[in-house]
Structures are given as C-alpha cells and as structure tokens.
C-alpha cells in the first residue's frame, strides 16, 4: 500500500509512519527508488488496513493511502537505423540538418 502526502509532509510525519514499524517485525516502511512513493508492506490487506487506520487515528498522519504505482521499464529488443534530414529555405540562407541514429540492444547483463 502506498502512502502519499496531502499537504505539508515533514520529517515528523515520516517518523509517525515508521512508528508502528518498530513494534511489529512483519510491518515494513520504505521509499520506492523509482517512483519515490512511501510504501508500507505487511502480511496482508487486512493487516495493512488496520495499521493505516491506526496511523490516521492515533498518530494523526495527514496522508492519502492507495495502490502503489508501477514503474514500467522499456528496453530495446532489436537493432534499428534511422536517417533524418531537414532542409528549410524561406529566403535568405535557410536551414539544413542531417542526423543518423543507430540503436542496438544492450549486451546480456548490461542495463
């Protein structure tokens, strides 16, 4: 479950989210590196809803709770070559551009 700030998110609010974590070994709070969302993880949906309600009620966390975002990653699967030209003559010297692009997939093990 993702926790997102409503208005002013301070360090104090982050500590309030992490406070229940110290007492429960099955509950974790972390920040997803790709999306930047604060994620709470537990043993199941009911477990997370109970902790979420408790954070809002007892610890007065001012935040929205919802589904986490999914960070899709794309990669190049095959080689491609492209050529582009720009020729623009509208009186005077004009503009000219020529571009060649060659794209290849990464080697195995490289990102």
Task: Set out the fold topology.
Blueprint: E1 2-5, H1 11-23, E2 28-31, E3 38-41, H2 45-57, E4 63-66, E5 80-88, E6 95-103
Antiparallel strand pairs: 1-3, 1-4, 2-3, 5-6
Report on the architecture of this protein:
The protein is α+β, with helices and mostly antiparallel strands. About 25% of the residues lie in helices and about 30% in strands. It is built from 2 helices and 6 strands. The chain has helices spanning about 10-25, 45-55; strands at about 1-5, 30, 40, 65, 80-90, 95-105. It has a 4-stranded antiparallel beta sheet, with helices on one face. The longest helix is centred in the N-terminal third of the chain and has 13 residues, at about 10-25.
Share of residues in helices: 10-25%
- Helix and strand pattern: EHEEHEEE
Structural class: alpha+beta
The helix tally amounts to 2
Number of strands: 6
Which strand-content bin applies to the residues?
25-35%
Mean pLDDT: 79
Question: What strand line-up does the widest sheet have?
Answer: 2-3-1-4
Which outline best applies?
Answer: elongated
- The parts where pLDDT drops under 50 for at least 5 residues are none
**Main sheet characteristics:** 4 strands, antiparallel
End-to-end distance, in Å?
28 Å
- Radius of gyration, in Å, reads 25 Å
Q: Would you kindly provide a brief summary of this structure?
A:
The chain has helices spanning 11-23, 45-57, and strands at 2-5, 28-31, 38-41, 63-66, 80-88, 95-103.
Keywords:
111 residues; alpha+beta; 4-stranded antiparallel sheet; two-stranded antiparallel ribbon; 2 helices; 23% helix; 31% strand; elongated
